[in-house]
Amino acid sequence: MMSTRRSSSSSAMATAAAKRPAVAEGGGKATTAAVAAGQQAKKRVALGNITNVAAAGGRAATAAGAGKAGNAKLNSAASVAPLKKGSLGSGRSASTNRASGVKSAPTKPAPAISRHEVAAQKESVLPPKVPSIVATAALAPAPVPCSSFVSPMHSGDSVSVDETMSTCDSMKSPDFEYIDNGDSSSVLASLQRRANENLRISEDRDVEEAKWKKDAPSPMEIDQICEVDNNYEDPQLCATLASDIYMHLREAETRKRPSSDFMETIQKDVNPSMRAILIDWLVEVAEEYRLVPDTLYLTVNYIDRYLSGNEINRQRLQLLGVACMLIAAKYEEVCAPQVEEFCYVTDNTYFRDEVLEMEASVLNYLKFEMTAPTAKCFLRRFVRVAQVSDEDPALHLEFLANYVAELSLLEYNLLSYPPSLVAASAIFLAKFILQPTKHPWNSTLAHYTQYKSSELSDCVKALHRLFSVGPGSNLPAIREKYSQHKYKFVAKKHCPPSVPTEFFRNATC
């Protein structure tokens, strides 16, 4: 009996020792603090007091925990990591090789010499005499068939309707010299000059076109619409139904939108700053449990829709947040977190029954209409449309647009814009940040988003201010999230101070 008690006592002591950090005999306080910080980092810090919003350190209670140590370490590593640049395309290297080959050839015609000097040098210098017509066929480009009528405004750089270079003038060019007096050196010099000029025209055309595409500001392209729904082999893309699906989502977003003035008309104890703190904390929870982005967007949608018709106390705002995330996780996730885990992330501020009661209240008020079009639904399609005929890196454009769209979740004033407009504006701003001199909008994006560039002006400017200024030091979750290597450090990209006004002008034919 004594041995049984002794074994149970020793096991209890071992369990207690495993739960508590060991203390050094020498009184090492640094070691104790490090072990305690390491164990607290494993636990998600609760939101804490959400009422201290007006103070400068509005999130001091939340950030006071040692759980931020891991994030600080991640941010320091992310800031030191260099940003790699993509290598140049093979087309530029081929153009460089072609240019070096052209520059090695002589470009000046041979100086005129007398007939006697030609006779003296003919035996030692000149190759065997070749008829002029053979040299012409060997060096001159093959002519393209064209009509016998030549436009008086035709120049050497003109391009025909079918995008082929017109070479009708090569048969009657005044620069080409036919010499019948046997002066072969002048013939070869003329042919060499003709060949060099043809090559130089092609080289300059490629270089100037590439330079124009990269550096010069260009207006909105009046181009043809690229086909996006043409992949019928991938069943997840739903190529045959994609257009109808997104037309239905555009109609549904007007019915599932929250009120844009519920803070002024409904809520008396909650303000936009408290809402932003709650969403910033929910971003950290979603990252902790690796939830899909749609879960986060749906959570914010449920919160705003519930606040649009129900007055709530600020002490229960975090309870509403975890209940809405629980519902969204059940709707979207394959393996949703349990109720006890959401109680744990609030540091057991709320009991299990309270979370379930709030969940039932939200479901009843929303009438179990959980399907709601969010900005993420439209952003997924708009990114695919933008990548069809875009030269920007695909991942940088996608991550940057996602970053801008998630920043919009924090801003209460952006609820006045429909989710599809926010998604289109995020694509507009992301393309502008990646290529500030190029018009971000084109006919393909205007067709599939059903928004003209002029309709995006106000929302793009609001997102631009949010991107440039940032949500503040007390709301760092989204910026820290997209400052990681897996998101290509898009949160650290430089944004121009303003968007040119001409980018918001619609294209005119």
What would you say about this model in short?
The chain is mainly α and 509 residues long.
CATH class of the domain at 375-504: Mainly Alpha
Please give the largest β-sheet.
none
Structural class by SSE content? mainly alpha
End-to-end C-alpha gap: 97 Å
Please give a structural write-up.
The model is unreliable at 1-32, 52-110, 122-181 and 200-222 (pLDDT under 50). Helix 5 (90-104) runs antiparallel to helix 8. The radius of gyration is 35 Å and the shape is elongated. It has 509 residues and is an all-alpha fold. Among the domains are: 113-145 and 159-214, no CATH class; 262-365, Cyclin-like (Cyclin A, domain 1, Orthogonal Bundle), CATH 1.10.472.10; 375-504, Cyclin-like (Cyclin A, domain 1, Orthogonal Bundle). The protein has helices at 2-19, 29-41, 60-63, 68-80, 90-104, 115-121, 132-139, 184-214, 242-252, 262-265, 272-288, 293-307, 317-332, 339-345, 352-365, 375-386, 394-410, 419-434, 443-449, 457-469, 477-481. Residues 280-364, 377-465 form the Cyclin-like domain. One of its GO terms (biological process) is mitotic cell cycle phase transition. Keywords: Cell cycle, Cell division, Cyclin. Residues 373-496 form the Cyclin C-terminal domain. Residues 1-38, 83-113 are annotated as: Disordered.
